[in-house]
Amino acid sequence: MAEANREEAERACRRAEEHFLAGNVGAARRLAGKAQRLFPSLPGVANAVAVYAIHAAAPDWHAVLGVDRPASADAVKRQFRRLSLLVHPDKNRSAAAEGAFKLLGKACDALSSGATDAASAQEWFRSHHSTPAKAPSANPPPPADEAESSRRAASGATGLVRVRCDYCRKARDVKRSELNSGLVRCLRCHSVLREPSRTTYVWESSGTYYKVRPPSPPPPYYQVPNKCPPPPPQRKKNEPKVPTFRCPALCPRCETQFTSMVTTGSWRLQCKNCLKDAMVHVKGPDAATCT
């Protein structure tokens, strides 16, 4: 049970980081809190919760530091030192750590100097979180084909990438080289899986975020010539039908019998109780092994 909670908490942390990079701070904070409830001792989960909470509280400086109104200078500095240990970029792997640390410093300066009016806070927050119409860049952006090829070369052709099906939302880990071929299909609905496009937020030295447009997705599988999988062979009319039976194997995690109808051979089945996949080698109606 603890191992399952740890895996679920790690997935929640990864999804929280994706939501933050997409600009959804509220969803990132909720997912980080869920991960902390599932597995409180997960490394870095407390740091992630603190980082997203600071971004969600800005530009209310009292909420950023978590102090009452009014707060003494000693209380402000004490809270700043405590939160700095959690959100410092050297101790926090989250992409939100640098921005949260800057928000802490600004909140400490504002509350220590007495500049706590809402107009000043709103003006600073807009200047540091606005998205300009055009990204400031001295060089023109590379063509889409060149950007796509350079991105794939940098990521590596043998690395694993986690892909979620666009139709049934089932996720799985596949090799990037197989994913780029356009022949990888979902294990649940058999739809073609594509590499997810990510939106990147870049922090400029001028104190602004701007969004980098993701590369164009690969063409659909029906537009790739000579790469579509062949149709399944047709069964002859007089050919006897292969008998099916309920899988006799038990789930290796929760020891619940699989409910899927199978024949002899190797099958990848999902347990209806714990929703975990397992490879089952069926030898007959009464004999099967799981790996």
Automatic annotation (TrEMBL):
<feature type="domain" description="J">
    <location>
        <begin position="60"/>
        <end position="133"/>
    </location>
</feature>
<dbReference type="InterPro" id="IPR036869">
    <property type="entry name" value="J_dom_sf"/>
</dbReference>
<protein>
    <recommendedName>
        <fullName>J domain-containing protein</fullName>
    </recommendedName>
</protein>
<dbReference type="GO" id="GO:0005783">
    <property type="term" value="C:endoplasmic reticulum"/>
</dbReference>
<dbReference type="InterPro" id="IPR001623">
    <property type="entry name" value="DnaJ_domain"/>
</dbReference>
<dbReference type="Pfam" id="PF00226">
    <property type="entry name" value="DnaJ"/>
</dbReference>
<feature type="region of interest" description="Disordered">
    <location>
        <begin position="122"/>
        <end position="155"/>
    </location>
</feature>
